[in-house]
What does this fold into?
Amino acid sequence: MKNDKEFDVKITLPAVGLGTWGGRSVDEVADAVLCALKLGYRHIDTAWIYTFAEEATGQALRKWLGARTHEDASASFSKEQADSSAETPSRKDLIIATKLWTTFMAPEHVLLGVEQSLARLGLSYLDLLYVHWPILKPFSGAETHPVDEIIQPRFATNIELADTWRLMEALVDQGKVRLLGLCNVTVAMIGEILAVARIKPAVVQVEMHPYLPQDDLVEFCARHGIAVVAYSPLGSPGSIFKDDTTPVLLRDPVVTAIAAKHAVEPAQILLSWSIQRGIKVIPKSTNPARLLTNLHPDVPLDADDLARLATLGIKHVRYFDPNKLFGVNLFQE
It folds into this structure.
């Protein structure tokens, strides 16, 4: 019989976190993360596959925590820590999230993938570990993947996502991970994990913006007490898959008109749209001024604004299409 264990640590995700995908160098990403931490960001989102982002995040954490890093960042998590607070920078004030890449999905490789991430970050536990994509690929043994290895259509047919999840649950039991999550999934995929999970997903992260509002998924997660995090909430201006025909969300006439009405930037409209729906956002920026405005979008959208933005969903634009990334029609679109 399934044991419906609820992990005894509760995490409240801030409305705005920092995404780290797409940086051009370790120093650029490290500087952005450090700046974000100083501004008040407490949720940093990264991934094993984001080239040097985990390493850069680790560098920023060491600088921000200063001399306390080794005794604080390397300390094991306990519930007592979660219930305490500190006036000085402290590891327990942060939510550090990373993602298990597709080549570490076999049960015998889950721990290796997580240990590599922990080593790069300089941490002994993760606050949140996601399955990056529910696509299972053979283990290559490599610590990095060139682009041609990422996109080549080789898949492991002998691995089930439920088996991966059980190993991730074991990492929670061992204190290496606090909470678990799923990325790039459908309602049906979430349901399949809920049916077998001993520790249910605490968070689901998907691409989400007015061109891709994912209303059914948002409603499903709300019913099951699962937080939703939106990546690419601004429409991913830096997407590697865009071309001259790709709609630019930040320039959409509806978005720019609402921004003009409120005398703010289009990005603030898009972030406020997500937040008013109860969605957490993780926009990426390396610009200090943009980091600050992203952290506090604070635009009270009225019913007319929301109705106009709702009309954009018919465009159904997915900036990160698994058909292009993996050659897989994951979402059956």
The chain has 14 helices and eight strands. The first strand starts at residue 18 and ends at 19.
